[in-house]
Design a protein that fits this description.
It holds the Pfam family HIT. The chain has 3 helices and 5 strands; from the N terminus they run H-E-E-E-H-H-E-E. It has 117 residues and is of the alpha+beta class. The chain has one domain: HIT-like (HIT family, subunit A). Strands 1-2-3-5-4 form a 5-stranded antiparallel β-sheet, with helices on one face. The chain is globular. The N and C termini lie far apart (36 Å). The chain binds guanosine-5'-monophosphate and zinc ion (ZN). Guanosine-5'-monophosphate (5GP) binds next to strand 2.
Length: 117
């Protein structure tokens, strides 16, 4: 069924507590934890508890949860006292997506370049 946990998915395992993570926030629909390979002083992954392979698929199926995800990214940014930050959804392997469970990268705490690499 759409959104059901996937036994082979790393982020579903993190949500289930089967793989340890440093959790920073949890709501009924979202989970936020620190990236294991941080690319900035703050690098938090904000994910839906429901399993969808990427952000656009999530948005098509679950607009409310997508809004929850973006709101939570903002809440984490405020808690981390970030005045500026970047929210990134890598979509597709060519764009650097390696985990196919939708996730927002919240990055902050250093200067950011544009365009991104
Ligand atoms: P993507 O490359 O799919 O956009 O992002 C996946 C992110 O997950 C990467 O930034 C990577 O460092 C992070 N990651 C991969 N494995 C783990 C893990 O076991 N724990 C945590 N906390 N992050 C992970
Ligand atoms: Zn998953």
């Amino acid at each position: 069924m759409a959104g059901e946990a996937n036994a082979d998915c790393l982020f579903c395992k993190i949500i289930a507590g089967e793989v340890p993570a440093t959790v920073v926030r949890e709501t009924d629909t979202t989970y936020a934890f620190r990236d294991i390979n941080p690319q900035a002083p703050t690098h938090v992954l904000v994910i839906p508890k429901a399993h969808y392979p990427d952000a656009a698929t999530l948005a098509a199926a679950e607009p409310q949860i997508t809004a929850d995800l973006l709101r939570e990214a903002g809440v984490v940014a405020a808690e981390e006292k970030l005045e500026s930050y970047r929210v990134v959804f890598n979509t597709g392997s060519g764009a650097g997506q390696t985990v196919f469970h939708a996730h927002a990268h919240l990055l902050g705490g250093r200067g950011m370049q544009w365009p991104p690499g």
